[in-house]
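sanity check both lines:
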Amino acid sequence: MRTKLTYLILLFICAASNIIAQNNDNDWENLLDKDLNNWDVFIGVPHTSLELEGYEKGDGMHGTPIGLNNDPLNVFSTTQENGETVLNVSGKIYGGLSTKKEYENYHLVFDIKWGTKKI
């Protein structure tokens, strides 16, 4: 069964690095680059507490989501740390990442680091 890898982000702030997948050939593929070229970004419904001009507000769950590949608050961004690309997640809005490519029979490995700020 071929599926897209989905990395869901709920209400937390974190950073992830070394997001790699291993396919049937035992070759590891790095899925993370500075521009998130291998990922589709989905951003959910802005909460009423956010100042985001031009977008309808909801309660964070109910309302109109911002949608696919439109991230006006940079919920998902990358930085370089010790020579590695690190995915940073602000947690300002519910969102998620899905790989553009489908994978099957894979092993997924990534490191997560929680930030000091908690919501």
Summary: Strands lie at 6-9, 14-22, 28-30, 39-43, 67-68, 76-81, 84-89, 95-99, 107-114. Residues 6-111 form one domain.
